[in-house]
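FAQ: What does the model actually see?

It sees only this:
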Amino acid sequence: MQTLAVDIASTFVDDAAALVTGLGRAVLKFVMAPVDRIANACDIAGVLTERRATFRMWRASR
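And it is asked to produce this:
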């Protein structure tokens, strides 16, 4: 019986941590949206686009 209680508690903690992480990412994305728009508007040489493409290729090969 104690094992079941521990499993439920650890599952709850894991779910709570995932929820906090997801909410944190959502808030960060919302807060950084204006900065990203300004950065994209000022990216005349296409450096940001090139970095994003390189990162996607690196992530896909991993």
